[in-house]
Write a structure and sequence with these properties.
The chain has one domain. Helix content is 64%, strand content 10%. The chain contains three helices and two strands, in the order H-E-H-H-E. The chain has a two-stranded parallel sheet with strand order 1-2. Helix 1 runs parallel beside helix 3 and helix 2 packs across helix 3. It is globular.
Length: 59
């Protein structure tokens, strides 16, 4: 299981390379964490700060 910081870094890097993330990509990461509600808040805040949009589905 990855740490929260590692999960957030991975998502931010992926989001920057793709230009966005899908909710399914975020959800997949959250499901791997025992602290799901806290992780979701941290991820969404980090993505917002990085300027990464979270979209409904892959286009």
């Amino acid at each position: 299981m990855r740490t929260v910081t590692s999960a957030i870094r991975s998502l931010v890097a992926l989001g920057k390379s793709q230009g966005h993330l899908s909710f399914s990509q975020v959800s997949e990461t959250i499901q791997q964490s025992p602290n799901q509600p806290e992780l979701l808040d941290q991820i969404l805040q980090a993505l917002e700060e990085a300027g990464i949009e979270v979209i409904e589905a892959e286009e």
